[in-house]
Amino acid sequence: MLSSRKCRFGALAIAVLLAGALIFTPGVFAESHQDAYKIGGIFSVTGPASFLGDPEKKSMELAIEEINAAGGVDGRMLEPVIYDTEGDPSKTVMAVGKLINKDRVTAIIGPSRTPTTLAVIPMVKRAKLPLVSCAAGNKIVDPVKPWVFKTAQSDIHAVASIYQHIKQNGIKKVGIITVSNAFGESGKEQLLAQAPDFGITVVSAQSFGTNDTDMTAQLTKIRQEKPGAIICWGTNPGPAVVAKNVKQLGIEIPLYQSHGVASPKFIDLAGKAAEGILLPTGKILVAGLLPDSDPQKPVLLDYINGYENKYNETVSGFGGYAYDAVHLLARAMEGANGDKAEIRKNLENLKNYVGISGGFNFSKTDHNGLDPSAFVMVRIKDGKWELME
Amino acid sequence: MQEILQYLFSGLTNGAIYAVIALGFSMLYSSTELINFAHGEFVMLGALCMVTLAVNLGFPLIPAFFLSICAVAAAGLLFERLAIRPVRHPQPIVLIIITVGASIFLRGIGMLIWGKDAHSMPPFSQHPPLDVAGARLLIQSVWILVILAALTAALQMFYRRTLTGKAMTACAISKKAAWIVGIPTKWMVLLAFGLSTGMGAVAGAIIAPITMSSYDMGTMLGLKGFCAAMLGGLGSLWGAILGGFLLGILEALGVGFITSGLKDATAFVLLLLVLYVRPQGIIGPGEVKRF
What we know:
heterodimer; A: 389 residues; alpha/beta; Rossmann fold; 2 domains; 13 helices; 14 strands; 44% helix; 17% strand; B: mainly alpha; ABC transporter involved in vitamin B12 uptake, BtuC; two-stranded antiparallel ribbon; 2% strand; globular
């Protein structure tokens, strides 16, 4: 008696689970719908760049859920097929091979990093498949490659925002200190290249290692040249050491940091030394502080609410790249009937899309579509971000 | 003038750190003829233990300092017991490769426990930096120098005045002879590991406030410390200290007068030059053994 009741209970439980799976899994629903569009996603969900890939994967799923809830693209659902690259170019190449040959996706979103993106560009070119990268490196879209787009802001715009601010404050000479890795080198290149456009001279260019313990020697050398401001370009933890050393040496001139440290972690690491530091950041960090007239504000707040409700964790500054990519792609897919060449053409002609990272206006010569207004300058005051004019 | 003084201060701070790390290398080498390439990882463990105890668990500074040293030294003892002693044919090359493996293992453990983010902690004492003729000297740098001096004095006392210290020196001179006269050489090796890794932890704990600590900080620090030990002469106490300061100061001057892009290169080129002229290091023991 007892065992048969147990049995019946078990059967009931299985039935409920199955029904639940049918209702709540978009994948199953989509498959029953015969012709869902498959969208590939390749992100560094684990590994050293997981701080990029993890929120990107989650944001892609969130965006697809939103689009499907609103009826999909031309009545057809989107189905994500996501692989983890671990930030490794060879694993990325393998994942893209699978997406092209096995999953036969309509388009690919990702990868998260510049080296992994560069590694797969020849593959999507051969397969004639649109790729929307979430990496920041400018090399991805310069020179323009027909099938490759990207949604993350470029160094170019960050440097332009900093120089704009420096110029407004009447400073003519700057010293720069950059980290000796790909991020720092690219920043240094842009800082040196754009300085003349703003009438600024770089009087001293120093570098530091990713794990150096003390940068006072480099800063002393910069101070000798008497610049009006110091610009530090790196990712944690080096820039926090620079911030501390600047205060310890009693250097009074303004210190600018790059968008590479635009996270609460930096304030946490640098502590009191973070006070007064200026940096460019995507608007997501200061969404609540934006004026209501900013067209990005509602988009940002929607995304932040959606993300934090779904995943129950604080939104990061990086997931927006994948979120924008999905929405841009969905828009380009409308009316294309799954034709990849048509989608590519639509993407290239897409204008006036307001996303998380800024206002996108793609063109034949610009596959990033953003301008310096994608960045705002913020100052750290009392351990909080303060929006600058 | 003010700049040169500032470079010197920067060099002294870094030099003292390298010296403490080099001491760990050197004293292990002198008693076991072993180079522990996982030493940098013990420095990392020391720094992160210190941050956890002092910042996250709110321990007062002094107990946190000694607790982290004890914890890391215990890890060093375990390392000797579990990875080094069971080796059946303990040739130096085999043991060295084991230490390289251990360094990768420890880095992985560090990443699992403390995550990939860097951690920071406030300095030992809250004072504005000292102003010496326009150059700034951090109070934490003074702490580092004081601790280095105390450590050196303690080691000197240990080797010269205590029976255990003398026994250890005897082991270093000839393991077999020491064993014949009744010195428990296995215990001496274990003790040397404990002391050496404890020294690594001291280095980690004193730099945690001036820099950021993360699971991957050990590799470069270990390499620099090894450089310093080689520069001064492996196995020599004073050599390690001299080598550390030389490396630190030359690095800082290299940044000041050549370029910061070549900071690490300056150190390694110097090492090559010294080893070319004096393979035994500046004040190393007269003869050098090659494996």
